[in-house]
Design goal:
single chain, alpha/beta, TIM Barrel, Rossmann fold, five-stranded mixed sheet, binds iron/sulfur cluster
Length: 441
């Protein structure tokens, strides 16, 4: 991001005020704080705009693979550590599908991956991409396999082939789906980059050295290919760690031109592949490609990704609302909790375990857990009463209202505010099944 002084250098310094700010310096300060747009000054020339836009661009270029609902965004990262700001676009996971499979088997394999889906704290994870590779060596078979996959799902594809002529029929046939072409290396960079530029598709470059990769980037850009993804090799854990880290560092510092693109790693399969995938997820990989992936491998990997790509400054939250659990009716108990996802899903799971029908009111506490929210004055009786009123909860049920045991103190005031009997629930959510059974409702 340019500083105020850097912006100021490019402004006319006439202090005319047409931008709505008294001086050019005041306008420059607003620009640096991202509270104004350069277009608001009618006197900035095109070259200055271009220069400023370039230095304003994220150090890791954003690249879109796929189209429509299934498209994936990679890159646009601006920090080395997630606590500095946050990581932007989560690592995507792809599995390889060989084009030598008969169509029915190919579709069955793809279907088994599409069915691999997990839910964790309210978020659904599934596979992001397919990498269809030209194992047959026949460009027409690759085209047929790619078309078959595009016909059965909206997942983005990566097309893997030995060169531009092997990839061309498939790339042309599914061009609208914006596949990623893999890969240009020192032997074929010109025709591969020319194909990518001609069809407007993203292109992966492959070279195990940083200098070699910088040369490939330059050659690809010369041909007009701009949306690049870099494969710096996955020979070992050490290599992934060093290459990915150095590429991210020099891109952020803008100290070495040519590596500011999303990174990818081909990790194979099995336990070693999993370890590499985890390392790539933690260390700046935007795309990880497996030969195969089992559900028991995908779950911990996707959980790791969720943790790394969650903004550490913004807890995962549930929408404030009244949620029915186990099919509640007009006299079911009414429980409430905070909107911190982990709290909500833990409480909900314990109520489900009891099989007792319950209305569960979520109160917006800005993602804080029960005791923290109470201490921060975001989970008092007045907040709970307001949430119950907003959802018309008291009109839905005449059953008892139950406070979490940790905030038993609010029960008296809440009872007054609601004009309804308020009971104190258990201290721990794990005791809810027993508590609800003893309520005898
Ligand atoms: S419109 Fe442009 S020249 Fe005029 S004060 Fe604003 S920044 Fe300066």
């Amino acid at each position: 991001m340019p500083t105020a002084i850097e912006y100021f250098k490019f402004l006319p310094k006439t202090n005319c005020g047409e931008c709505g700010h008294p001086t050019c310096l005041a306008f420059a300060m607003q620009l640096a704080n991202q509270k104004a747009s350069l277009d608001e000054c009618p006197y900035v020339d095109e070259e200055a705009k271009r220069t400023l836009q370039e230095s304003n661009a994220p150090p890791v270029k954003g690249v879109t693979v796929g189209a429509g609902d299934g498209s994936l965004r990679m890159g646009e990262e601006t920090v080395l550590y997630r606590h500095e700001r946050r990581f932007v676009n989560p690592t995507a996971y792809a599995v390889a599908i060989p084009d030598i499979l008969p169509e029915a088997e190919l579709r069955e394999l793809a279907r088994s991956y599409l069915d691999m889906s997990f839910e964790r704290v309210g978020m659904v994870f599934d596979l992001d991409m397919f990498a269809v590779f030209n194992a047959s060596g026949d460009a027409e078979r690759l085209r047929a396999a790619a078309e078959s996959l595009v016909g059965m799902c909206s997942k983005p594809l990566m097309l893997i082939g030995a060169g531009a002529e092997d990839l061309r029929p498939a790339a042309e046939a599914i061009r609208e789906s914006r596949p990623l072409l893999y890969a240009a290396d020192e032997d074929n960079v010109s025709p591969m980059a020319a194909l990518a530029a001609e069809l407007g598709l993203p292109l992966a470059l492959r070279d195990g050295t940083l200098d070699g990769m910088a040369g490939l980037v330059e050659a690809a850009r010369k041909e007009g290919a701009e949306d690049l993804v870099l494969d710096l090799g996955s020979d070992s854990m050490k290599h992934i760690l060093e290459s990915n880290t150095v590429a991210r560092k020099v891109s952020l510092r803008r100290s070495f031109k040519g590596l500011g693109y999303p990174l990818m790693n081909l990790v194979g399969s099995g336990e070693e592949g999993m370890m590499m995938a985890m390392l790539s997820t933690m260390k700046y990989g935007s795309l990880v490609v497996f030969d195969s992936l089992e559900p028991q491998q995908a779950l911990p990997l996707m959980t790791l990704r969720q943790n790394i790509y969650t903004d550490p400054q913004v807890p995962i939250q549930v929408k404030e609302d009244l949620y029915p659990v186990n099919g509640p009716g007009e006299d079911s108990p009414l429980l409430f909790t905070t909107n911190f996802s982990l709290t909500y899903f833990t409480v909900r799971a314990d109520i489900e375990k009891s099989r007792i029908p319950v209305w569960l009111q979520v109160v917006d506490t800005e993602g804080l857990s029960v005791l923290t929210a109470y201490a921060a004055n975001k989970f008092g009786h007045e907040h709970v009463a307001a949430a119950l009123e907003a959802s018309s909860a008291l009109e839905r049920t005449s059953g008892p209202v139950v406070t979490p045991g940790m905030v038993a103190k609010m029960s008296g005031k809440l009872e007054e505010a609601l004009g309804r009997k308020v009971l104190v629930g258990p201290m721990e959510s794990g005791s809810l099944p027993k508590f609800l059974k003893n309520l005898g409702v």
